[in-house]
Amino acid sequence: MAAVLTSVRAFFAQAPAFVIDNETPADVVARENLLDLAMGADRRTKSSEKIRRGRLPAEGLALVARDRDGHVIGTVRLWNIEAGVSREGQAIQALLLGPLAVDPAHEGKGIGAALMRAGLLEARKRGHGAVLLVGDASYYERFGFFAEKTQHLVMPGPFARERFLATELVAGWLEGAAGMVVASGRALSHPTEQRKAA
Q1: β-strand pairing of 130-134 with 153-154
Q2: What single-letter DSSP state applies at residue 56?
Q3: pLDDT tens across 53-82, in order?
Q4: With CB atoms counted within 10 Å of each terminal CB, which end of the chain scores lower, N or C?
């Protein structure tokens, strides 16, 4: 009888409200529409966008949240950067996170937090030492992001110092980091890739 009840419960159990998945080329249009909806038309003018333009996301670090029907309802990407230089003058390899966005119709369900955790976990698994972003400290501090880590770094173009945050995946990774944040990831090589990375 217990086995029958377990089978019945499993049959009627709801599918999860969303799942985190790797982004595919088929997701690009839905992702772009979601970003326009969640972030507005001026999203392409931000300093972070200058770093991302003409680049592909870091290997394995473009993630989406899908609803029960497979529709994209959230997105996050991480990008290879050099976070200034160390005291010894060596470029510091790191990641830039963003944009993180959730369909406004699905806000408040923990989708953004799930994408953050999944992205940071995968970045750590892949051996990355630090992640930087521009965003609200009140939201990102729960994931270990603080402005103190970026106090001697600058973004290309205007940025709000209090919103320029970082977390270390390896303790001390950003110790002594100073200078300009610049792109270091894979460059787009032809127009097809541009559409896939948009």
Answers
A1: unpaired
A2: P
A3: 899 999 999 999 999 999 999 999 999 999
A4: N
